[in-house]
Amino acid sequence: MNVRADARERRNAIVDAARAVFTERGHDAPLDAVAELAKVGIATLYRNFPTREDLVTAVAVATLTDVREAADIALTAMSTDPTNAWHTLVDRLVELRLGALIPALVERSFTELAPEVLAVREVTKSKMTATIGAAQSAGLVRADLQPLEFVMALAKLTRPQIELSDEAMPNLVPRLVAVFMAGLRPDGTDLPV
């Protein structure tokens, strides 16, 4: 592996670790926890991301890129199996745990986000709009569903529920997502959990 590829791999490991730490501990978690999970020294973290804001920006770009890629895969699959494509998209967005990451991504207003985040957000929004349009055409979701409200609702449903243990409310997130998805259907029928 060449030096450039090694540096890129290390940078990606830091971003992946930051996503995991922010998901579990919040976006104000100590950066040494990120460095530890990424298996790099804190100095290496700061060489790659001089400020917390730089790291949050990288996490935002990575997360939005993952959302866009999931929407792209779903959009391609809509032509052959729209129901499965839609379910796969929702499952992937839930897996990304957007609810835990959104506070780090939108701590301020959307207009204050870094230019690279805004650029990726626009491409992601366009792809999500097309995918939702395909789901609407297939009769899977209501005609008035907007991309931002869809993503934000999933984010709200998947945010950490620290006040409830899994023992008290088993399968809470999948159940909430299933109820939400049923509400999006034009006919209101329930979807399997």
Automatic annotation (TrEMBL):
Organism name: Rhodococcus erythropolis (strain PR4 / NBRC 100887)
Gene3D superfamilies: Tetracycline Repressor, domain 2 (1.10.357.10)
Superkingdom of source: Bacteria
Annotated HTH tetR-type domain residues: 8-67
Protein name listed in UniProt: Putative TetR family transcriptional regulator
Key word Transcription regulation present: yes
GO MF annotation: an example: DNA-binding transcription factor activity
Matches recorded under PROSITE patterns: HTH_TETR_2
Residue ranges for the DNA-binding region feature of this UniProt entry: 30-49
Keyword annotations: DNA-binding, Transcription, Transcription regulation
